[in-house]
Amino acid sequence: METTQAKLKKPEAMIFDMDGTLFKTETLLIPAYHELFDRLREEKLYVGDTPPEELMLSCLGMLLEDIWRKVIPDCSEAVHRRADELLLELELAGLKQYATELYPGVKETLEQLRDRGVRLFVASNGLEHYVKGVAETHLISPLFEAVYSAGEYLTASKVDLVRLLMDNHGISSAWMVGDRSSDVEAGKKNGQTVIGCAYAGFGQGQELAGSDILITTFNELPGLYDRSESLE
């Protein structure tokens, strides 16, 4: 249930983060992550133990270049770029191999929102083929008007990505729905409402500070929408 009693305005669109919001990322990322470091060791690009899974999970929502600076800070940029290539390769293969999952009720909730006339979008800091691959594998791609990724649009921040999405699609009123501080920042700096998803459990306790509403299950969104006030 929502934990803040903010008065919400009915949006014309909802913009969703992917990892930790729609997609249960660890169901794909953890096996791919371990394979990635096996490959880096085979290629003599990395020595030593694989960094803790928790470190990688704590970086979800960041741009990949920032993730590797935190996870393998002592490696060169060339190794970081090779890690980009391997992670994408392994995650795309993993979408076919592993039993990956969306969060409970995601597809049904998106369908309910679309049936109410809400325009649906994705804005993710991930790589293009990964973000679109997750949506296609889990059969939610047709529900979105567009899927935006930092990998495709080469944006420096999620603030820029969301601004570009809103400009390109003529959106003035939206809810930014996500689980990380980058989502809160992207919504607020673009003058929009932020719905913080408090169910993924990644990051620190203050990750969603500044959200207008916190939800603990994805399927709360249609009720929030129905109770929100129509824009004058």
TrEMBL record:
One BP term from GO: DNA repair
Domain of life: Bacteria
Gene3D superfamilies listed in its UniProt record: HAD superfamily/HAD-like (3.40.50.1000), Putative phosphatase, domain 2 (1.10.150.240)
A GO molecular-function descriptor: phosphoglycolate phosphatase activity
GO CC annotations, alphabetized: cytosol
Regions that span the bilayer: none
Keywords: Hydrolase
Keyword Cell division: no
Protein name: Phosphoglycolate phosphatase-like HAD superfamily hydrolase
Organism: Fontibacillus phaseoli
